[in-house]
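pinging the channel bc i need a second pair of eyes. not urgent but kinda urgent?? the chain im working w is below, pasted from the shared doc
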Amino acid sequence: MTVLEARPTFKPVQEREVLEIANLSFRYAVGERILQKLNCQILQGEKIGLIGANGAGKTTLFFLMSGILAPESGEIRLLGKKVQTGEFRPEIGLVFQNPEDQLFCSTVRDDVAFGPENMGLTQEEVAKRVEEALALTGTLQLGDRIPHHLSGGEKCMVAIASILAMRPQLILYDEPTANLDLRARRRLIQFLQSSIETIILSSHDLESILEVCDRVLLLNRGQIIADGKPREVMGDRELMEANNLEVPHSLL
């Protein structure tokens, strides 16, 4: 486990580097600064858990990574190219905590097709990607259903399918197990374990992070406080309690 230090400039882009954050700071129009000179690198194929107490800035960081919000200062680079606010980058996908914020079309198939259609792909390629994403998430049978008539677990997997259809290299999952029953939660964990994409999973469900992730980032006071193996970071009682978190029950 290491504590990250501020780094003033970018390194040359490495072959396996997917995302790099340098000296990132952000504040909303009213209130204290949420992020302060935050630095981080994400490598291809990593499964990363992002943890922190409520208000630590996890969702804000996701919005900055995906270009929804603009930094106060600093930069984010996705595959070596600076993330620009409002720019459509299919290389990165964000799965919202509430799937209903992501599903807005009249059918599941239309929702999953929305991203590929905005990439300018042919109808044949769009159809191919839709079928592929629905198959990967086990939702092929839901293609003609109305999204808002689905169960919570079904909505979650369809929302993921709508991201997978764009074939992103990095997927951000914001509290994906929230409000899922045990069966849907287990299915999602198994899906994430088998994922081939680089993923960052923000969650208060620390047991799911232990099962899925090979690296954990602990966010607090606007900075990454710790970066290391999940069992080492989350098993450190003093560290966790100092950052308003509890050690997962399975590590006690």
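so The chain has two domains: 15-86+169-174+195-252, 92-167. and Residues 1-14 have pLDDT under 50 and may be disordered. — does that match what u expected or am i reading it wrong
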